[in-house]
Structures are given as C-alpha cells and as structure tokens.
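Researcher: Checking consistency across runs. Here is Cysteine synthase again:
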Amino acid sequence: MRYKTIEDTIGNTPLVRLQRIPGAAIEARGNIILGKLEGNNPAGSVKDRPALSMIARAEARGDIKPGDALIEATSGNTGIALAMAAAIRGYKMILIMPENLSIERRQAMAAFGAEIVLTPRAGGMEYARDLADQMEKEGKGKVLDQFANPDNPVAHYETTGPEIWRDTDGRITHFVSSMGTTGTINGVSRYLKEVSAAIQIVGCQPTDGSSIPGIRKWPVEYLPKIHNPAMVDVMEYVSQSDAEDMVRRLAAEEGIFAGVSAAGALCVALRVAERVENATIVFIVCDRGDRYLSTGVFPA
C-alpha cells in the first residue's frame, strides 16, 4: 500500500457556493457564485501549486538538485509555499521580501526553515526582485522567478482549471481571479478557453492608490513575463476599502475566513452577477485570513 505524502494533498480544493452575500436579487437572476478554497492547501494558499511545480520540474530537468540554494522574491504566499516545497524536497530556500509585510508570513516561512532577507518598504517588490537577481549573479543560489517561470501557470493549467471544470460539471460561465504574478489567471484561462471558448475570464486589480496584498498593477518594466493579456477578457478594479469590507463580510456572513485578495475577487464576481443571468461564477479564494491578523483588517 502506498500512503500519501504531504505533496499529494496539494490541489483538489473544495468549491463552495456562497449562501448569503449574493442576496435575493442575484439569485433571482439565476446566478450562483462559487469560491474555490485554496487556503485548504497544506501551506495555506493557491501558491502551493506553482511552488511545487517550479521546484519539481526544475529538478526533473536537472536544473537543480537537492541541497542547492534557491532564491525568490515574494510578498508572502509564494514564499511560504516555496519554503514548504523546499523542505519537502531538501533545498535551502532564501526568501526576499519587503519589511512591511505581515509578521505571520515571515513566521510561517521561518517555520519551514527558510532564510529571510528583508528589504526596505520604500523599494517594494520591485527592489526585492532586483536583489534576488543580484544574489543569483553573485552565486548565492538559483532564482526560480515566479514572474517569468512557465512552470507557474502550467500548474494551474494542469490542476486548478480542470478541477473547476470538473466540479461545476462544465457549467462554469465566468472565472474571476485577482492578479499578482498572473500565474493563476493565465493557467486557468488557458485550460478553460480550450474546453469552452464562451467562458469569460475576469481579472481583478487594485484601484490607483490601493494596497491589497496579493493583487497589484506592475510598472511596465516589471510586468510578469508569464502574463498573456489575451487570456483575460475583462479587467475590473477594486478599492482597498471595498476589499477589506468584503473580507470581513466573507467571514461573518459565509464563515469563510479568507485573505483580502480573495475578497477583492468576490467584489468583482458580485459585479458580474449583477449584469448577467443564469451564470455560474467561480472566484479564487487565494488564502486564509489568519495570515492577516496583525494587519488590523479583522479588528477585535
């Protein structure tokens, strides 16, 4: 008998129907909204999928071998997932992140044995990415580069997309995802568009001046190379205040304790539901809310 390993528990996350937030008006239009609970992955986020994919595929190609040092710039979830995957497969993980990100994220990375390099808040993720490249040039390790690595979106093409199609019995009409590295939306979109060109793919980004962990608009020179704009049919923008209000509603009204980026995607899903009929709308619940407790978004 073969027993499962922790790797085997990545993916096949639940797809659950929202019961209260959509309200009578949306239900009267024949619409349902479903959230894919990626916080149920072992390291707690949707990033578990690409993290294992990037390490396992690089290892299979002979690009890396157990014992090597890996480097990645991260805002949190990818770093935690990579730290877990590195622990499973026997790699040293060096994670570079801005100093202003939540302490829970740092603690989770450290728990998996990762070395953490903090960068100035003012430099943002752009500085962290530049430092990762510099460290690789100095021979300190290999950068996996979630922003340019095709092993990121292919994980969603092979797993997340097929799961959504399967669990909706092919009824999905709209897919909504927050956009950070863009790996999730690109991989899922590629799969869904292959099985049904009619499915609409909706991206979620922050409004100008909003700071929402896990969602962002990049300066042109830092745009993720894995992103294909043709994979996104519609772009919607969400304010920080709306996303933070919605994340509290998700917990209090649906019992779904999620992160703020998931709430941003839900704001967009609700907009979609107000203008269509007989739709099955799926949004990604990227991670869990316990990753944000120290930020004050869930006041006691």
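Researcher: Does this match what you'd expect to see?
Model: One thing to look at in this run: The CA atoms of residues 15 and 164 lie 8 Å apart.
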